Amino acid sequence: MSGSEQARGIERARKAAEGLAHSAGFGNEHSSEAVPGALPHGRNAPQRAPLGLYAEQLSGSAFTEPRAHNRRSWLYRIRPSAAHPPFRRIDNGALRGAPFTETVPDPNRLRWDPLPDPAPGTDFLDGLWTLGGNGDAALRTGMAIHLYAADTAMTDRVFGDSDGELLIVPERGGLLIRTELGLLAARPGQVALVPRGVRFRVEPLDEVVRGYVCENYGRPFVLPDLGPIGANGLANARDFLAPAAAYEDVERPVEVVNKFCGNLWSATYDHSPLDVVAWHGNHVPYVYDLRRFNVLGSISYDHPDPSIFTVLTSPSDTPGLAGVDFVVFAPRWLVGEDTFRPPYFHRNVMSEYMGLIEGAYDAKTAGKGGFVPGGGSLHNMMSAHGPDRETFDRASAAELRPQRIDDGLAFMFETRWPVTATARAAGADHLQPAYDRVWEGLERHFRP
């Protein structure tokens, strides 16, 4: 693709991203129609669906799961999904899936610089780069951590993930995400969630885009219970925005790529599968602005546990022990008295992957060789970590005035199992070789 073609594609994507319509509410029963009368009323599968469409159910949970956990949407489309040729295996590129067996789980603390810029002509799918993960996609347990870097739209190409849902966290540049159920735009500071099995295409809104992806093989993400917090706080359901129906009615070859049990499979359709004219249900994509997170914290003393910053959680069979949590460190005030205000030193039964969207994180030194936007750190279970020496010295001597933290936006994927790095990630040129040194110089201060 030439530079002028790329520029025209970005301009078209930006125009499509302007003024998108949404319906609000996490887990709601949404409904939308792109053409009046396309959505049937009073039944899901009438003998003849309106406007000559096909009725099709997309199930994100087993039929018999409890109503509170059941995920499904009814789609009214130009052609049924069943109308396609066989899929064939294609190369996985830098994308991997669980189980992760290329290396052994590593107890060492690891940190990476950002991914290098993509080679010209790299789209979102080709630009996916797997850092690691855990569990088993075929058994629907665990998660994977991917990064992406791209500069090209997925023209006549569509992707769907049978293994899990995808939480996309842009860090550099925005994305237009065309899904079966409609269009979403996600820019740095926002996240997009694409449910298991929902097909989509990504178009960059900027010359180069980069970010993170959490692939959740387990129970779909839900809002965490609030317990003693009460009825309000953390991420509010009303701030999650589902798309309005928008369809493509094109008859030309379109490559459809399916991720299935960790591998990529491809089929060439004679039409676009993004042809849903109307839909209703709760198995839907969302976009969420992380700056709308209602941060709660201590107004007396001590730093609360980072679980107080949980946006979404994928529950496991053990109450309170998540397959994966998505945590955000959003702008907030620190007012704790006689308190070491950055995150404390600790060892955690959970494994933590942290990324940075913008600015700096208050427990890590920024700049070259430090923790920078687009980079990430992995602290597997029981790996000792906490503020680096520079942060410790500064925070221990700071005057404890009320302090506004608004110069950074960081997040964490936290999981109950160790994260095993891929061989590519373990040997990457952008893996920082001297990460342990940030804790050198933490001197003995004990005076008996």
TrEMBL record:
Residue positions annotated to bind Fe cation are: 352, 385
Its cofactor is: Fe cation
Give the matching Pfam families: HgmA_C, HgmA_N
Q: Which GO terms describe its molecular function?
A: homogentisate 1,2-dioxygenase activity; iron ion binding
One biological-process term from Gene Ontology?
L-phenylalanine catabolic process
Q: Which reaction does it catalyse?
A: homogentisate + O2 = 4-maleylacetoacetate + H(+)
Q: What does this protein do?
A: Involved in the catabolism of homogentisate (2,5-dihydroxyphenylacetate or 2,5-OH-PhAc), a central intermediate in the degradation of phenylalanine and tyrosine. Catalyzes the oxidative ring cleavage of the aromatic ring of homogentisate to yield maleylacetoacetate.
What quaternary structure, including any partners, is listed in this protein's UniProt entry? Hexamer; dimer of trimers.
Q: Which family does it belong to?
A: Belongs to the homogentisate dioxygenase family.
What's this protein's name?
Homogentisate 1,2-dioxygenase
